[in-house]
Amino acid sequence: MSNAPEQALSPEEMILVGVQAQLAGRPGVLPAARGLSHFGEHSLGWLGLAALGAVLQPKRRKEYVTAGVGAFVAHAASVVIKRIVRRKRPDHPYITVGVGTPSKLSFPSSHATSSTAGAILLGRASGVPGGAVLAPAAVVPPMLASRMVLGVHYPTDVAAGAAIGAATAVAAIEGERLWTRRAARRTDKRDQKGSRS
């Protein structure tokens, strides 16, 4: 620390200090948070799971493609928003930064955005009853907490990221339904032309 007067903590910084005080010292928390960080970087983990699902469950390939596209679009949207908002990442002597980041911009959390979209869409793609609710309920809270434990995002960054991710997932599902309806209409038209000839 420098000899400069202490910088006051904002309410969000106080939350980060509290989260780190409660969680960061527990065994396994920091390695798990870093693992989640690497998994979620640029939505690559979600893209990998979507590709794996498409190979292992070919009958649900369309849903897995939607999951991969949705996670990537959510990530891309968050990057665009970050460049517009330009909020800097947490930077206070009381906040420990536990992982490197590809940019200095904070709002919204791209990890929260792509993880929320990816978890909703992969849960749906799996075909497990309630998967679109169960997967995000299991995966999203730890990802959001990990970003704060690592000191790279404010609470509003992760909350906004989760909201954008959920909205992107809904849009991806609607886009898939629209595509399916249009494809069915094209098939019907081809069948009608074929039956007339």
From TrEMBL:
According to its UniProt entry, this protein's organism is: Tsukamurella paurometabola (Corynebacterium paurometabolum)
SUPFAM superfamilies reported for this sequence: Acid phosphatase/Vanadium-dependent haloperoxidase
InterPro entries per the UniProt record, alphabetical: PAP2/HPO, PAP2/HPO_sf
User: Where do the Phosphatidic acid phosphatase type 2/haloperoxidase domain residues begin and end?
Assistant: 64-173
Q: What is its main location?
A: membrane
Protein localization: Cell membrane
Source organism phylogeny: Bacteria, Bacillati, Actinomycetota, Actinomycetes, Mycobacteriales
Q: What is this protein called?
A: PAP2 superfamily
Per the record, its GO cellular-component terms are: plasma membrane
Bilayer-crossing regions: 64-81
What GO annotations for molecular function exist for this entry? hydrolase activity
Q: How is the protein disposed in the membrane?
A: Multi-pass membrane protein
- Which terms are listed as keywords in the entry? Cell membrane, Hydrolase, Membrane, Transmembrane, Transmembrane helix
Against Pfam families, the record matches this protein to: PAP2
